[in-house]
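Researcher: I'm preparing a figure for a lab meeting and need a structural model of a single chain. I don't have an experimental structure, so a prediction will have to do for now. The sequence is pasted below. Please return the structure as tokens so I can convert it later.
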Amino acid sequence: MIGTFFNHELKAFWRSKNTGKSIGVKVVMGILLLLLFSYVLIFGLFLDKILGKVLPDSDLTVTFCGIILIYFLIDLLLRLQLQELPTLKVQPYLHLPVRRNSIVGYLALTALLSFFNLWPIVLFTPFILKVILPAAGAISAIAFIISIIGLSVFNNYLAMYIKRKANLNGWVFLIAAAVLILIMLGDFMWHIYSVRNISYLFFGNLIVKPYLVLLPILLGVAMYWLNFLYLKENLYLEELGSQKASAYKSSTEIPVLSRFGIVGDLAANEIKLILRNKRSRSTLIIGLFFMFYGLIFYTQAAYGETIKIFVGMFMTGIFIINYGQFMYSWQSSHFDGILVSKINFTDFLKAKYLLFTIASTIAFILTTPYVYFGWRIIMIHFIMYLWNLGINITIVLFFANRNYKRIDLSKGAAMNWEGVGATQLLLSLPLIALPYLVYLPFKYAGYPNLGFAAIAVVAIIFILTRNFWIKKLEEDFYSKRFKIAEGFRNK
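Model: Understood. Here is the structure written out token by token.
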């Protein structure tokens, strides 16, 4: 039956109207993957020499055993961000005499067809054959390889399980990513424990006790079985829909947003869209990583205050920039429904302003630890936070009326140029240039503080006149709404 499913998938691919484009994309991606694998293979072949250079005073085997668990923690984090969920159009088979176990088994087994599962084998096997095999024998070397395969399978199905749960509750994804990051910080920043010692505790003993290979095998099998049961329980669309309905609260029950009425309801719906879908969720996660952007500039005295304007704007407005550049493409799949709905577009725009205001406020709060480098940096951050709320949101929504490219929300952000066009390039110019047009005349006149004050005054004026700009954006939208809708229909 699995062969039949695979055959149907091939026929669906070849009969698709976008087959030519899909083949071109797959060929390019295949070449990139082969190039990437060649780099990984070369790195694996010279891993013993690299480890010897990096840690010359440590035993090579001890060092190797210590990094394996670190690799798989990073691997899991990358899988959560990049690995695709295997899919099958289940509906046509539900009314046929096809066993549920066959459908679920196909979905579970095709999850193994990921390049993430080959990376550790290609990376670690050369070291095992060059170092572990001569020193400990064939049995220990085989135990190492099987353990690495077992942990790869465990990571594969754990990532699949987390992402499937995240489809019902977006907070699951954020919590899982936060836990992984905290585990790494607990070792490398706070030094509460040592992941390397824990890794060596298992793999060091694996050399003399090859039967310990049963542990990663059991972990892999257990996680496969957990995925199998979860898919089987949620195979039918009505069952999955009922769980979604119970997992999410209505937006009126969100204390922060309920006070804004329909605007808060629309903002809450967009928050759910962000957390439920892979592309938008990837944008959110990438934005959180950019909170460390200031460490590049604030730790070096060579950078003056001029560059801090960009850094402050970028960190406090990263969500506006990353997410806003694809506005309204996030709603491209149901944009026609928005046009014919009873939603007042003024409320729709106000919801965007509210969403961006909340995100930018959170980003500003997250950047407050940069006070370590001086209170003046926080002052610049606050001024650029006001600039983002007043001007950058308006600029982003203005360019949104000129973005006609749709986005598939189920795809990740990495190596994905869907929705990218000339609009994004043009958008970056005013975002970067406008604050400097206000600041630099005062700086070159010898009054940099007045320059910062001028930025703040302009930002506050735009915030106070927000309703005027919303009305102008609404008029602009109505003149272009049919062209936007037509662009979103083109797949």
